[in-house]
Amino acid sequence: MELTFIGTGYVGLVSGVCFSEIGNQVTCVDKDLDKVARLNKGEVPIYEPGLQELMEKNTASGHLKFTADLATSVQNADIVFICVGTPSLASGEANLEYVEQVAQDIALAMNGYKIVVTKSTVPVGTNDKIKQIISQLSPHPFDIVSIPEFLREGSAVKDTLRPDRIIIGTSSERAAATLTELHKPLTDEIMVTEVRSAEMIKYASNAFLATKISFINEIANICEKVGADVTHVAQGMGYDKRIGSSFLQAGIGYGGSCFPKDTHALIQIAGNVDYEFKLLKSVVEVNNDQRFNIISKLNHSLGSMQGKTVGIWGLAFKPNTDDVREAPALDIIKTLLQEGAVVKAYDPIATENFRRFFRNESDVQWCDSAMETAESCDALCLLTDWSEFKEIDLRELNGVMKQPILIDGRNVYSKEQLADTNFQYYSIGRPELESLSPFRNSVASD
Ligand SMILES: NC(=O)C1=CN([C@@H]2O[C@H](COP(=O)(O)OP(=O)(O)OC[C@H]3O[C@@H](n4cnc5c(N)ncnc54)[C@H](O)[C@@H]3O)[C@@H](O)[C@H]2O)C=CC1
Ligand SMILES: O=C(O)[C@H]1O[C@H](OP(=O)(O)OP(=O)(O)OC[C@H]2O[C@@H](n3ccc(=O)[nH]c3=O)[C@H](O)[C@@H]2O)[C@H](O)[C@@H](O)[C@@H]1O
């Protein structure tokens, strides 16, 4: 089948590459000419394991093309996928400007029957709006379908080629049959529903996952006060199939381009129909507070931050991505600078993207390795659970720091790894591990 994906962000690019991999003729379109030129040179604009290889293979075989010519690619396509961004407006609502622009561009380019699929995350009712825009501008027949995207950054290729489920929201039997056929090579779990339910499934799924994270973070905060270990609590809860073990990892809260944006948007969607989504509002509030636990732990261990050197390991919002959108590291570093600390920072791949947030580049010392970051630090904070940090030799780390204060924002280190070190060790919701530290006990009793 001939497919066009409009927008070459995570969703458009990864989907385009994966659908070419399973035998379709794919064109990926972007209005950003520089990005298209880079893609045509074989450069992958995002860090995503496995993507480069598949992209090279399918461009070489002629199954995959990149262009800025939206009109021609729409005309050649059987199915057109809208994959442009829907960032937050100041109100929290989704900005639909890009989606509506693309709907107009598709309408003006159409030359016959098309299936128009929205993969962007859009509020309930948006696909009806897209239908209205196209039917006002084009005399040609078309069907509108909502197929929300559930891929995760860092495992996007795997998630796209082996999804848990595909949701097809449409009132057209013809479109439902074509799209079921298209997705069959990926999974048997294909659900056909109406458009508005499909739109809501996407927001409800992200909001539920965000709720699990804020829930376990609050349990972790209580564990710290009552002497329980949140990792054991999560494990014990997870054996119950009704609860499940995923998304119960306590830490510094969720970030990224989607959970923060989509939780705010769903609160607004509810608000627009006079419903106060109290639970989700609390999920957001808990998440906003959670990152500042790192600051409280630093204040507890260092006292005043003025003139102290604090190392940061991890800037991306999670491992295996160079995406720094809404990364908790940003708020944490800004607060440290405000409190007078000297900040050294390192991420295996996201440093370049992260530096753009700082007008004055010299505010932070950007380092090239984990050990260089730790050298001469009064405290070190692990904010992203990259495997490189998990595998570090803590005894060697202990030796290079000025003061052995280690704040593990992702609970990556074990009792065994901490043995034979004198770290004053803090983590999230594991008070027993913290009390093992001899240095901390001596500080506490000073
Ligand atoms: N990033 C992710 O992991 C996921 C994102 N989503 C949703 O998918 C949507 C897209 O997200 P990302 O892929 O992160 O997008 P992104 O914001 O990284 O990229 C969007 C791309 O669309 C292009 N674009 C904008 N207007 C255009 C136009 N008129 N014509 C051609 N190209 C145009 C931009 O130049 C940009 O390259 C959002 O609604 C997001 O919520 C859903 C699941 C996962
Ligand atoms: O709509 C989207 O864009 C996507 O949003 C998330 O994917 P993503 O943001 O790539 O990353 P996740 O793996 O979900 O992690 C999000 C954040 O939650 C945090 N997290 C995750 C899991 C956990 O147990 N604890 C926790 O703190 C991560 O560190 C990260 O900051 C969803 O998992 C995808 O299904 C969805 O398609």
TrEMBL record:
Keyword annotations? NAD, Oxidoreductase
Gene Ontology BP, a term: UDP-glucuronate biosynthetic process
Annotated Pfam families: UDPG_MGDP_dh, UDPG_MGDP_dh_C, UDPG_MGDP_dh_N
Q: What class of enzyme is it?
A: oxidoreductase
Q: EC number(s) for this protein? A: 1.1.1.22
Origin, by domain of life? Bacteria
Q: Which reaction does it catalyse?
A: UDP-alpha-D-glucose + 2 NAD(+) + H2O = UDP-alpha-D-glucuronate + 2 NADH + 3 H(+)
Query: Which residues are noted in the entry as substrate-binding?
Result: F150, L151, R152, E153, K202, F247, L248, Q249, A250, G251, G255, K318
Q: Which PANTHER family match?
A: UDP-GLUCOSE 6-DEHYDROGENASE TUAD
Q: What is this protein called?
A: UDP-glucose 6-dehydrogenase
Q: Which organism is it from?
A: Saccharibacillus brassicae
